[in-house]
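Exam revision sheet. Question 4 asks you to relate a sequence to its structure. Input first:
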Amino acid sequence: MNRFVDEAVIDVASGNGGAGSVHFRREKYVPRGGPDGGDGGNGGDVIFEVRANLKTLSHLSMRRVFHAENGQPGAGRRKHGRNGHSVRIPVPPGTLVKEAESGRLLKDFSTQEDSWLLFTGGRGGKGNWHFSTPSRQTPRFAQPGRPGSQCLLRLELNIIADIGLVGLPNAGKSTLLSVLTNAHPRIASYPFTTKIPNIGVMAYYDQDILLADIPGIIAGASGGAGLGLRFLKHINRTRALAFLLDLSADACLESFATLTKELGTFSRELLRKPRVVLGTKLDLEGAADNLRVLQAGLPDEQVVGISAPLRQGLPQVQRLFASLAAAGS
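Answer key, structure tokens:
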């Protein structure tokens, strides 16, 4: 089972430039040949690349050092040293690149940008033939290569999605995600089955709508209870929210109050996002009565009753999600 890793500290460095060569022509019929030391190669660059197939930073927890290759030194006959190979660091969309010590944000991969050059490798030094003059015909020196750049970086992943599914544990988020999308999250009847955010793509006519199933939020989550702050931050990048409330329980209104309180405590911006309220498990006994109570208790909210296994109410949910995605973009 792949671990979900949303933070990583890595050591990155571009390559040093290769030294220029000090060399003189040595040919049979040219006893006093001039300088012909070649230039050193440039050091490799440090390049970040966004890979849509990556959903986590787990690959960076296994390899923490990314150093580009140094440039090779020059040689006689003006032979240029080979340039060092660049190091390419793959990251998922939504990755933040920060300086590890200061926390200063260097790059936010929330856009469709595919790559970013962080450091250029050190330039290779010039060979001694560059320094030949009429008064100095045999220069016995060359330029050293310039050093590359190095630093420690902290990478943080904030999942980007159109709709974030939020709710208490066992509210039916994973079931809805599995029915609407191509995702196959783990589903069970006990709390905190979902321990990592799950992502799925809902196809709606010519739209692809990204849904994120956020692990269950409980009272005190904004202070670290349950799975706590670790996953609340991922809701920040969603364009809209769907609150899922279990209609088989009698405390639907209290559940909604708990969710809004925890989200608002974490960030008031979350409560300003477009949203819809979904009453789940409509097929269970007493759920229809609880749906009416929920609709009456939340007159300012758009409340829809659904049963994901029976696909009851799902066409309306798809239309709503498409509208919310467009409103939040």
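Marking note for examiners. Residues 252-266 form the longest helix (15 residues).
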